[in-house]
Amino acid sequence: MNLNNRINGILTLSALVAALVAFPAFGVEVDGVQLDDSVRIANDELKLNGAGTHYRVIFKVYAAALYLPEKKTSASEVLALPGAKRLTMVMLRDVSSNTFAQSFMNGLKRNTSFADRTKIVNQLLSFGQMFASVPEFKKGDVLTFDWVPGAGTLLRINGKKIAETIPDVAFYQAFLRIWLGQQPADEKLKRLMLGEKTEGRDRANF
To answer: Is the pLDDT of residue 75 over 80?
Structure first.
């Protein structure tokens, strides 16, 4: 091999290595949805804790992913963990906001006490404004529910903020319990979000 060919070979290899560094691989694919292995909220880098698909009867409704500052494998650890958090949902079918809101409230009632809900009633009303402003969630819509320390719960759809920031951490914990509580929206999805490898599909409540 002459010198020019060797130089060209080295340059080609260097370009491939640079491309791999510049464009890191996605963390996981869930039903055709590519989910990053990490996200950044304010100054915090969060790692993908787990992800899966939520079903209603036989229909795929959304892919969901939980991002945390560090890996956790139990709901109690997730709720107690300080720092930023994110729940990402990518819609796999169209769902009306009324249906989504009713499912949200049902999940909240199953996983929080009446006393706890009364403490966050004003926050629930604020969150309800989101459902009033979005008539329908479309297939492909990306919803992110962030807990930002010092600010509160921030909701975005396709990157656009659509509701007022909700400052009470008790609200975000109640929100996470819809998926991580004793009666979660989807038992298999709960285990997947907590990093467990599962087979088959369990009954969904949401």
So the answer is: yes
Hey, CA dihedral for 62, 201, 69, 106, is it positive or negative? positive
Q: What contacts 24+ positions apart, CB below 8 Å, involve 70-78?
A: 71/47, 71/195, 72/194, 72/195, 73/194, 73/195, 73/196, 74/194, 75/176, 75/177, 75/180, 75/181, 75/190, 75/194, 78/49, 78/176, 78/180, 78/194
Structural domain including 141 reads 25-193
Looking at residue 31, its pLDDT comes to 86
Residue 206 belongs to some domain of the structure: no
- How many structural domains does the chain have? 1
Indicate which CATH number applies to the domain containing 183: 3.50.70.10
pLDDT per position as a tens digit, 92-147: 999 999 898 889 899 999 999 999 999 999 998 888 877 778 889 999 999 999 99
Q: Is residue 156 part of a domain?
A: yes
